[in-house]
Design goal:
- With 139 residues, this protein is mainly beta.
- The chain has one domain.
- The chain has one helix and ten strands.
- A four-stranded antiparallel beta sheet has the order 1-4-5-10, with no helix packed on it. A four-stranded antiparallel beta sheet has the order 6-9-8-7, with no helix packed on it. Strands 2-3 form a two-stranded antiparallel ribbon.
- It is globular and about 50 Å long.
- The model has no long low-confidence stretch (mean pLDDT 90).
């Protein structure tokens, strides 16, 4: 399985690229974290998993800005040590295998997402799709 590349594997990543590169999330500050439970109604064949939306200020950049990221079909959401000192140390992504279908083909992999404080994971979960929703100037 190939490594996760946020530049190509995150929808609308071009909105926040810095000279074609994924920006630095070190010292990013959480402004808003929203979790929507989704809409699962088997009787109507509706299968929308939980959606997590996060607005961050990328503070370690020469010209800081706010970015909103949306994560689709989330599960296994864990939040630890979140308080008023909510600056992040790092943001990482990696693909995680899920097994195979009955015909032997691999299932769509999870994307393992981890927002880390300097002392360990602050927010981690698995999802199937990530998108950049917006970028706006800070202040």
């Amino acid at each position: 399985m190939q490594p996760f590349n946020p530049v190509t594997d995150i929808a609308n990543s071009q909105l926040i690229l810095e000279l074609g590169e994924w920006p630095n999330f070190h010292d990013a500050e959480v402004h808003n974290l929203n979790i929507w439970r989704g809409d699962v109604r088997p009787e109507d064949d509706t299968w929308i998993g939980p959606v997590l939306e996060l607005k961050l200020e990328l503070c370690a950049l020469q010209h800081p800005y706010l970015v909103t990221l949306r994560f689709h079909d989330c599960e296994g959401i864990g939040l630890q040590g979140f308080n008023h000192q909510n600056a992040l140390y790092d943001l990482s992504f990696k693909y995680e295998e899920r097994g195979t279908l009955r015909n032997g083909e691999p299932m769509t992999p999870y994307i393992r997402v981890s927002f880390e404080h300097a002392f360990g994971a602050a927010l981690q979960f698995r999802c199937f799709r990530i998108e950049v929703v917006s970028r706006q100037e800070a202040g």
